[in-house]
């Protein structure tokens, strides 16, 4: 959440920046509740001081009256605090100054294109045709067992996924990322603290009173909830592998063929906890790691900087990497790298010790490898005329083969 002091001093700016992200926010009620709350805090503090004086002078009647009045004021304050925290959590994080104002993804900025697009002397197949023909992908049976937007990976495609996971973990181990396999269920408090309204509006899978994670970030960030880092411990970087789950609510009719958009997928995710002054440098560093992996895989891609209207609720700035998908004749998102500044740390109470005081850390996240889209990109960009698929050289040692034969 945002700092209430900043909101008080910049109410018009906050409303305008929120509007740029597509959120209509009225701060009048929040500021009114905040004003009442601050006055009541002063009244409660004074009554507590008066009660202490009465106890020291042994004025029993006065002390009893003060105690009753204090209880009433404390109850009022508790209710106001609940209303205050509900209202302030409805205010989205603000986009950074360098983020272009735009209404949706059509106005995102292409920063650069990297790699040459494949040239085929034959009609290329899509990943579904390739996967079915090579017996490495089965959607029909998955639909029978689990419903639409599920799939079975088989044979060489399984080996390829695990080679990709190992590939990403090894690169990030060299950068001192701490490796984690996290839980995939989070509780309601954590879901609210992360600042993703999607959990409660249809995107998240609910299991009793918990949620299945939409990415490993969602269980890695709250690892340090209600904790304080030593300043010397930052940056703290994690790389996590987990299965992720998304309902894809609102995507009816989109990407219905194949496994571009699915409900369950595996992902290797990076999360960084940093000092505020290191935020921009860390964001560029995470993006550079994504690009390093893409170049080693020899896949053509473009880097896109999202405009304000495409940013999520907690996100202040976000880069996407979009990889070329030949069958669609366009780039599709395979990676993202986001900074959420101190928005999540305020909601989850994650701080660092700065001298005698405690300050909120800044939190960033980025994709290392996300299945199945990176599998699709490898399959389609490296397909051969005979229907076989060449495996990127950096993965051949771990797959144990250099080609998926036709």
UniProtKB/TrEMBL annotation:
Residues 30-90 form a coiled coil. CDD domains: SerRS_core. Keywords: Aminoacyl-tRNA synthetase, ATP-binding, Coiled coil, Ligase, Nucleotide-binding, Protein biosynthesis. PROSITE patterns: AA_TRNA_LIGASE_II (PS50862). The record marks 367 as: Important for serine binding. L-serine binds at residues 215, 246, 269, 365. Transmembrane segments: none annotated. GO terms for biological process: seryl-tRNA aminoacylation. The keyword Ligase applies. Pfam families: Seryl_tRNA_N, tRNA-synt_2b. SUPFAM superfamilies: Class II aaRS and biotin synthetases, tRNA-binding arm. This is Serine--tRNA ligase. GO terms for molecular function: ATP binding; serine-tRNA ligase activity. It comes from Candidatus Curtissbacteria bacterium RIFCSPHIGHO2_01_FULL_41_11. GO terms for cellular component: cytoplasm. Residues 126-392 form the Aminoacyl-transfer RNA synthetases class-II family profile domain. Its EC number is 6.1.1.11. ATP binds at residues 246-248, 262-265, 333-336.
């Amino acid at each position: 959440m945002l700092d209430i002091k900043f909101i008080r001093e910049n109410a018009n700016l906050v409303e305008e920046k929120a509007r740029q992200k597509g959120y209509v926010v009225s701060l009048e009620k929040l500021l009114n509740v905040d004003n009442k709350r601050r006055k009541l805090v002063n009244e409660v503090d004074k009554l507590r001081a008066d009660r202490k004086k009465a106890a020291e002078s042994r004025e029993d009647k006065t002390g009893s009256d003060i105690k009753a009045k204090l209880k009433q004021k404390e109850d009022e304050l508790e209710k106001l605090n609940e209303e205050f925290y509900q209202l302030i959590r409805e205010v989205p994080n603000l986009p950074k100054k360098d983020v272009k104002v735009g209404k949706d993804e059509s106005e995102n900025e292409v920063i650069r294109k990297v790699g040459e697009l494949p040239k085929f002397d034959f009609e290329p197949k899509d990943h579904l045709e390739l996967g079915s023909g090579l017996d490495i992908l089965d959607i029909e049976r998955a639909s029978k067992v689990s419903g639409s937007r599920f799939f079975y990976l088989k044979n060489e495609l399984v080996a390829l996924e695990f080679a990709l996971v190992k590939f990403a973990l090894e690169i990030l181990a060299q950068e001192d990322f701490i490796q984690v396999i996290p839980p995939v269920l989070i509780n309601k408090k954590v879901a609210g603290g992360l600042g993703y309204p999607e959990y409660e509006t249809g995107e998240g899978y609910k299991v009793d009173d918990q949620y299945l994670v939409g990415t490993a970030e969602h269980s890695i960030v709250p690892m340090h909830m209600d904790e304080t880092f030593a300043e010397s411990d930052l940056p703290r970087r994690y790389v996590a592998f987990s299965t992720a789950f998304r309902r894809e609510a609102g995507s009816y009719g989109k990407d219905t063929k194949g496994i571009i958009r699915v409900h369950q997928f595996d992902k290797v995710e990076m999360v960084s906890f940093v000092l505020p002054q290191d935020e921009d440098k860390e964001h560029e560093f995470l993006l550079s790691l994504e690009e390093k992996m893409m170049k080693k895989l020899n896949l053509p891609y473009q880097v896109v900087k999202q405009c304000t209207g495409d940013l999520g609720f907690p996100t202040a700035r976000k880069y996407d990497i979009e990889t070329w998908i030949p069958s669609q004749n366009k780039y599709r998102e395979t990676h993202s790298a986001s900074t959420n500044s101190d928005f999540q740390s305020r909601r989850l109470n994650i701080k660092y010790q700065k001298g005698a005081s405690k300050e909120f850390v800044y939190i960033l996240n980025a994709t290392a490898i996300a299945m199945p889209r990176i599998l699709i990109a490898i399959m389609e960009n490296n397909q051969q005329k005979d229907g076989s698929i060449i495996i990127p050289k950096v993965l051949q040692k771990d797959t144990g083969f250099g080609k998926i034969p036709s």
